[in-house]
Each structure stands twice: as structure tokens, then as C-alpha cells.
Amino acid sequence: MKELSLHILDIVQNSIVANAKLIEIMIVENKANNIYIISIKDNGKGMTIEMLANVTDPYCTSRNTRKVGLGIPLFKQNAERAGGSFTIDSALGKGTVLTAIFQHNNFDRPMLGDIAGVIVLTVAANENIHFIYTHTTETGEYIFDTDEIKEAMDGMSINQPQVIRYLKEMIKENLTEIHYSN
Amino acid sequence: MTKVKSLADLRKMKEGLESKLNLREKGNNTESLVQIRVAMATCGIASGAKTVMEYFIDELEKRNIEAIVTQTGCMGYCYAEPTIEVTLPNQDPVVFGFVNEKKANEIIEKYIKNNELVDGIIPVNYESIQK
Which fold has domain B26-114? Predict the structure, then answer.
């Protein structure tokens, strides 16, 4: 993928298919130590030991419409190409956590891209899932928690254009405040 | 003192919206709305499904068409991504492939507004794809 946010969009789809009720997306930027970490954790149905062992194989997939599953192997490839690493852990019945680490200044690290769009689109299309997006930089931390959003919305649906637009702006502004790197 | 949007601002915005309460809140009758599901698997995302989804959300609002736009998983048509499934009220779902912004525009103007079929329909069983 050309942007890290699209990888996140992709991996979160896995969590949704795994029937996760809570999906946590964490991005940690630390320029001083030259690292950029993306971590996605869910409480979905998890994977068996066999599946976990093979999950980074492009020919391993949980769906029956196709025989390949490229999301995870491509993300892993991108992380390793940018001088980083990739780990994934899972337990049946507990959930899965995936962590991709990149060198922050590595030329091969893709740009983050439209993370606000990715988050809002996913949250709006899956209103019954609790999402927590945390972005940490050396300046500060921003937390986007759908429980707080739902409380502010007081029962009104998030999946409406005006709300979507507003939330995107809100996320972008807050990320700019903490000097996130795009 | 910053101008950064906060949750308090979100509440205020929401109050402004409530006065223009739309169909979806009253009775939540999804059967009478156009439903669009955008395939959001790896192949779809890599080919631009996100842009397509955003386009539909914005354009349907601009053209005043009540619709619900959501995501779905792989529908199996990786060769034709981005793909979308459109269900008009009281009709069977139809899957379109090779959807870009131009095609999306055509789908809105012809299929959604006038029920005219558009090129690029993927002809398979017309049962709604479950994730």
C-alpha cells in the first residue's frame, strides 16, 4: 500500500471480520529514537496456533472467496523494508495484536496518509464496535475514543456526511496539535 | 484557548444537526433508503475503495439522496476492484466493478436516480453478500 493509513484500514477489516467488539489502534512516533510504531489490537475470536504460524504467508487466508490473503504479508514487507520489524500474536477466544515498527526517517517508510479519513470511515460504517485510536508523539498524545463520541452524539448516528466531515476535521486538527508526521 | 475541535464542540454541532432531523433517526427505516456497501478488502483498498466510499458519502449528500454507505469484506471480485454493492429500496442488490469516481458518478445519476442499468455490473447470484 502506498500509505500506512491504508494498511491500518486493511488490518482493521480483519479485526471486524473476527467479530471484535473493541479495536485499539495505536500509533507511536519517536523521532529521537527513530521509530514509528503502529499497533492494532482487537478482542475478536483470535487465531489457532496453526493459523498464527502461517498468517504472514500470502497463501494463508481465512476467507473462501480467494486463496490469498495479502494484507498482513504486505504490511510486514513494508515494515521490514523500512528497517523495521513486524510481530503478530493471537490466542483463540482472546483476540489478536499486530505491531509494525518502522524507522521513522527511513525513505522506504510510506507516509501515513489520510488517517483521519480511515478512522472516521471505519468507525461510521461499524457503529456497534468500540474503537480507540491513540496517537502519541514527543509533543503529546491524542485519543479518539468512540465511546466518548457516542456520548457526545447522544444516540444520533455517526454515519452521516456532516458528522463524518466534522470528525475528520477534529482528528486532523488534534493530530496537527501534537505535531504528528504525515 | 485553542481552536482545536473538542467533544464539547461536537455536541454543539450535533444540536445544530438535530433540527434538520433526517429520515434515518425517525423510525430507522433502512428499507426505504439506498444502501451502498463498498468492498474494503486488501485488493479493494489498494485500488482506491476508500476514495470511492468518500465520494459516495459526499456526492449523495450533495445530490440529496438518502443513503447508507458502509463497508463490507471481500466479495471475491478482486480482478474488478473497487467493487460496490448497491441495493435500491425494494430491489435486489446489484454489484458494480471497476468503480472509480467517474463511474460512481454514472452509477448515481443513472442507476440510483433513474434505475437505468450501467456498464460494469458483475452478474452473479443476486443475494446480498454476507461478510
Answer: Glutaredoxin (3.40.30)
The whole-angstrom separation of Cα A95 and Cα A113 is 27
Measured between alpha carbons, how far is A129 from A165 in angstroms, rounded to an integer?
A: 20
CB–CB of B45 and A69 under 8 A? no
Q: In this structure, which topology does domain A4-177 adopt according to CATH? A: Heat Shock Protein 90 (3.30.565)
8 A C-beta contact, residue A10 and residue A62:
no
Interface test with A, best of B1, B42, B47 (most A CBs within 10 A): B42
Residues of B in contact with A71 (CB under 8 A): 41-42
Query: Domain coordinates of chain A in residue numbers?
Result: 4-177
Quick check: B123 and B113 in contact, CB under 8 A? Answer: no
B67 min Cα distance to partner chain A (Å): 9
Asked if B76's CB is within 8 angstroms of A66's CB, the reply is yes
Q: Which residues contact A146 (CB under 8 A, 6 or more apart)?
A: A123, A129, A130, A131, A132, A158
Chain A touched by B60 (CB under 8 Å): yes
CA distance A15 to A24: 10
Predicted TM-score (pTM) above 0.90 = no
pLDDT in tens, chain A (182 residues): 889 999 999 999 999 999 999 999 999 999 999 999 999 999 999 999 999 999 999 888 887 777 788 899 999 999 999 999 999 999 999 999 999 999 999 999 999 999 999 999 999 999 999 999 999 999 999 999 999 999 998 888 899 898 999 999 999 999 999 999 98
Could you report the predicted ipTM of this complex, rounded to two decimals? Answer: 0.86
